[in-house]
User: Which sequence fits this backbone?
């Protein structure tokens, strides 16, 4: 069964078609990866799915529901979480505080109940904390839980961003270049986290990634895009061997 269906999605910026008629389906429980040269439109597809951008055409169906017209916070509440290519965390807050912010879309209490700090609010806070602590354990972040983001190494901040996304209890997690800027060892760990998210947490993962060894290792299916167009779909090996994909990469190398 498809958890996410993207149908004929398009968006232009100043006359440039960044995404042009892209369609794909992500099945529940799979790791589905978008690859393609720089500027292909991969992050834009993420921004369209997470409803930061308004498509000029097309439809996004999540869990059987048309989410094309919904605001971004409603989409988070339905179970889509994401990380950003350029990590977006609150630098002057702790890991724990960032994760509690990540849970905000799951809070059941109203502002006036919070203002009065009713028993319901205290109970809710305890529950939020428990879940966040589980995420901290899952991603081995215990040594960093009370540290400020600003002082953490880059590789740890990448993991905290994933933790923040997991704290919202998503069904689908969008990872935009989870391994960019990571060392070989950190990339290895990232592969384990992604496998654990799929196998232990039962999550569906939609990823954008350039590191083809990571892509080959964790992806069930891969879609290559270039200049906003879908080029080829299949296993990582099939897509890498596709002449259109090879040509698209060679084209960008020749011009860069
Ligand atoms: N907000 C925006 N305003 C104007 N142009 C944009 C905007 N967002 C994306 N673009 C353009 O859309 C195209 C696709 O960009 P996008 O960031 O989606 O590429 P990408 O595939 O994620 O590339 P990379 O691998 O470098 O991250 C590029 O030409 C980019 O300049
Ligand atoms: Mg990008």
Assistant:
């Amino acid at each position: 069964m498809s958890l996410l269906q993207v149908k004929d999605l398009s968006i232009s910026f100043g006359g440039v078609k960044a995404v042009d008629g892209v369609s794909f389906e992500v099945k529940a429980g799979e790791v589905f990866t978008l690859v393609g040269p720089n500027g292909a439109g991969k992050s834009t597809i993420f921004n369209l799915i997470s409803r930061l951008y308004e498509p000029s055409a097309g439809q996004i169906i999540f869990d059987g529901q048309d989410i094309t017209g919904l605001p971004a916070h409603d989409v988070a509440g339905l179970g889509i979480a994401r990380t950003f290519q350029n990590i977006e965390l609150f630098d002057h807050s702790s890991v724990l505080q960032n994760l509690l912010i990540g849970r905000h879309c799951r809070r059941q209490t109203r502002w006036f109940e919070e203002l009065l700090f009713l028993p319901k609010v205290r109970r809710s806070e305890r529950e939020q904390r428990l879940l966040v602590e589980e995420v901290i354990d899952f991603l081995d972040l215990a040594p960093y839980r009370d540290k400020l983001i600003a002082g953490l190494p880059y590789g740890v901040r990448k993991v905290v961003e994933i933790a923040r996304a997991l704290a919202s209890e998503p069904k689908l997690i969008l990872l935009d270049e989870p391994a960019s800027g990571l060392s070989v060892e950190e990339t290895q760990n990232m592969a384990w986290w992604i496998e654990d998210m799929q196998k232990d947490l039962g999550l569906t993962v939609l990823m954008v990634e350039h590191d083809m060894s990571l892509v080959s290792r964790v992806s069930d299916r891969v879609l290559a895009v270039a200049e906003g167009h879908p080029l080829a779909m299949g296993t990582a090996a099939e897509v890498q061997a596709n002449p259109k994909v090879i040509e698209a990469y060679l084209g960008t190398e020749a011009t860069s």
In short: The first strand starts at residue 2 and ends at 13. The radius of gyration is 19 Å.
